[in-house]
Write a structure and sequence with these properties.
about 130 residues, mainly alpha, elongated, binds ascorbic acid, about 0% strand
């Protein structure tokens, strides 16, 4: 069912990139608060955290076979040759971003810690699976 929504590989690429773009926008707003570049606002942080958690479920269906590349930002072939590790990284990210809303409600220190943990899971996959 995941792959069936895409008629062409390019559609899957477009879909996953759109998902990550939206995640980055909302995660970035949390980061600004977590790092003191924007004033902490519990309601706004919670709303952004809930959006990130929902969005985190979407992009991975777009990693269909045959869509690796060699340009900066593209997925390396090991996404598919080492798929269990990739999927585990995705699961870990989803687990950490699911904690952001509760942390946002708890306050700026909790948000800062949860943001750092979540960002680490983003970086882990970027380091291992994304062309630098
Ligand atoms: C972000 C963003 C990412 C991650 C990554 C964490 O805000 O857009 O891709 O955090 O930079 O290391």
């Amino acid at each position: 069912p995941a792959a069936a929504q895409f008629q062409k590989p390019e559609d899957a690429v477009k879909y996953r990139k759109a998902g990550f773009t939206l995640m980055a926008a909302h995660f970035g707003r949390l980061g600004a608060m977590a790092q003191g570049r924007a004033p902490f606002d519990a309601a706004s942080a919670t709303a952004n955290a809930e959006i990130v958690a929902s969005l985190s479920k979407l992009p991975f269906a777009g990693f269909v076979e045959g869509t690796s590349g060699t340009e900066k930002g593209q997925p390396k072939p090991n996404v598919w040759s080492d798929r269990a590790k990739f999927d585990e990284g995705a699961r870990k990210m989803q687990e950490e971003v699911a904690k952001l809303a509760a942390a946002a409600k708890a306050g700026p220190d909790a948000l800062k810690a949860a943001f750092g943990a979540a960002a680490g899971t983003c970086k882990n996959c970027h380091d291992n699976f994304r062309v630098q």
